[in-house]
Amino acid sequence: MTYAEQSDNRLQKAIIFGVVLLFEGALVTALMYGLGAPKSSPPPPPRPPVQARVIKPPPPPYIPPPKIQVQAPPPPIKHVTHTKPPKPMPPAKVTPPSSSDAPVSNAPPVPDHMAGSSPLNHVVPEYPEEMSDAGREGVVTVACDVETTGATSNCQVMSVKGGQPFADAALRAVRQSRYAPAVKNGVPVKEFHHLYTITFSLND
């Protein structure tokens, strides 16, 4: 065998070997990326479309209308009389009793006068202890309304000498007192703004 033939045989073997290597590489690549890859799971089936239902509100409860009672008309007048109505009777005359029949009071008429100045229930003003200890005296003028019952109302201090404790003691006294009410035409009346002077003296 010549040298040229030997060279051709070597070249053919090299080509066959290269083709085998290429085939094996392609086979390995196919196994790794094609045949060896896990099969993908099939896609999930599509969900059915959501059906929206419109719920109608229930109808309102039936309220029957109120029953209207119609009064029956009065029966027609079948007979009309033409009799004249009787004449009205004249009012009875009331004769007032004569003055001779009225009881005669021998009591003299009560003269008009103002409310009393001295309490009927004998209320005595309380001397303030602190003023008594200090040896102080005072004079208070109080204005009150005297009701028809003799009770006082709306009492106010008009003037005070000696200190405020005297004014407080005088107000308490006149509010607890009951006086003879004022009289006008023989009837007790309310007197407004009656003045009372209360003197606080250590000698009393």
UniProtKB/TrEMBL annotation:
Residues 40-49, 56-77 have a biased composition (Pro residues). The keyword Protein transport applies. GO terms for cellular component: outer membrane-bounded periplasmic space; plasma membrane. SUPFAM superfamilies: TolA/TonB C-terminal domain. Pfam families: TonB_C (PF03544). Residues 38-118 are annotated as: Disordered. The keyword Protein transport applies. PROSITE patterns: TONB_CTD. InterPro entries: TonB (IPR003538), TonB-dependent_transducer (IPR051045), TonB/TolA_C (IPR006260), TonB_C (IPR037682). Keywords: Cell inner membrane, Cell membrane, Membrane, Protein transport, Signal-anchor, Transmembrane, Transmembrane helix, Transport. The chain crosses the membrane at residues 14-35. It is found in: Cell inner membrane. GO terms for molecular function: energy transducer activity. Interacts with outer membrane receptor proteins that carry out high-affinity binding and energy dependent uptake into the periplasmic space of specific substrates. It could act to transduce energy from the cytoplasmic membrane to specific energy-requiring processes in the outer membrane, resulting in the release into the periplasm of ligands bound by these outer membrane proteins. This is Protein TonB.
